[in-house]
Specification:
mainly alpha
Length: 150
Amino acid sequence: MTLAKDLPMVIEKSQDEIEQIIALVQSSNLSEETKLFVIGCINLASWIPRALVEHKITVSNLKRLIFGNGNKATKQQDNSLKKEQNNTAPEEPTPSTSNNESHEPKAPKGHGRLPHTAYNNAVEHHITLEQLSAGQLCPFDCGGRLASST
């Protein structure tokens, strides 16, 4: 954590004062590259607090702007690399399928919803009712119509 004495001092400046400072930097004998850097820093330092106060940007969007978007695949790979570095063994590791599978990205979970074809031992029953056919009204009076089973 940063100590309070290490934090930068906040100095309030009006827009006119900021424009005067930028004009002084532009008229100085600094190199063009340094001028662009200083002017960019001044603009950024005055824009961030103003954007937060005026609710033009949220803290989470500011974090994303500064650090970029996180990538789940990258995070998973970083975690697996850290685990491998922590678990270094003096003996030579033997290649196995479990190590190869851990580096492959996992498929997204379906939240427990599997299609009927995913069950290997499931028995599918087809019941034909002679008094019902496709296109008739639902026998439960729900307002729907029966569909073809094929």
